[in-house]
Amino acid sequence: MTIDVDYGPRDALLVVDMQNDFCEGGALAVDGGAALVPGINAEIEAARAAGALVVASRDWHPVDHMSFSHRGGPWPVHCVQDTPGAAFHPDLALPEDAIRVSKATAFDADAYSAFDGTGLGGYLQEKGIERVIVCGLALDVCVHATVLAASREGFTTLLLEALSAAVDPDAIEACHRDFEQAGIEVRP
Ligand code: VGL
Ligand code: ZN
């Protein structure tokens, strides 16, 4: 089953941070994270079949990153470069030609959005992409930031909420207000 998105060649499906550390058993596990994988795989297939671009971001921190609690940051150690926790979920069916984007790779800065410091916006523009369709983890952190950034960069933005899950479910309401204010379409 796929969500009924009319994908085309001017669309990019952006799969955010579907990594082991954000799934059950990981260092910063999101409830319901792993269960999203089959639905995301179906979406990837639908997007590809219609000639859409498939992009996958990953949180990719150096050791001792400033966002880790032992450095005074808000998060436990997670998604350290080249560790199993930073790998994409093993069942995520990323095509070989999918675009991989690593973010938050500097010691001294965090980046929640896949557009932050990656050059992704310019790249998508060069490719003629007009709409960005977003799914993945976590709804209230990196998906929230990524969706707002996509809209700010001028892309028509669609969030597939059934293919996302939050670290803090109590934060979802505030996210919805932000999405609405920015004119972002949320597909439940
Ligand atoms: C994320 C917390 C810390 C995310 C990344 O990908 O949502 N959350 N770093
Ligand atoms: Zn992180």
Automatic annotation (TrEMBL):
Q: Which GO terms describe its molecular function?
A: metal ion binding; nicotinamidase activity
Gene3D superfamilies, alphabetized: Isochorismatase-like (3.40.50.850)
InterPro entries in the record, alphabetically?
A: Isochorismatase-like_dom (IPR000868), Isochorismatase-like_sf (IPR036380), Isochorismatase_Nicotinamidase (IPR052347)
Pathway terms, separated by semicolons? Cofactor biosynthesis; nicotinate biosynthesis; nicotinate from nicotinamide: step 1/1
**Sequence ranges assigned to domain Isochorismatase-like in this UniProt record:** 12-186
For this entry, the protein name equals: nicotinamidase
- What organism is recorded for this protein? Halomonas ventosae
Superkingdom is Bacteria
Q: Which UniProt keywords apply?
A: Hydrolase, Metal-binding, Pyridine nucleotide biosynthesis
Entry keyword Transmembrane: no
Enzyme Commission numbers on file: 3.5.1.19
Q: What family does the database annotate? A: Belongs to the isochorismatase family.
Alphabetized Pfam families for the sequence:
Isochorismatase
Give the EC class as a word: hydrolase
For biological process, the GO terms are: pyridine nucleotide biosynthetic process
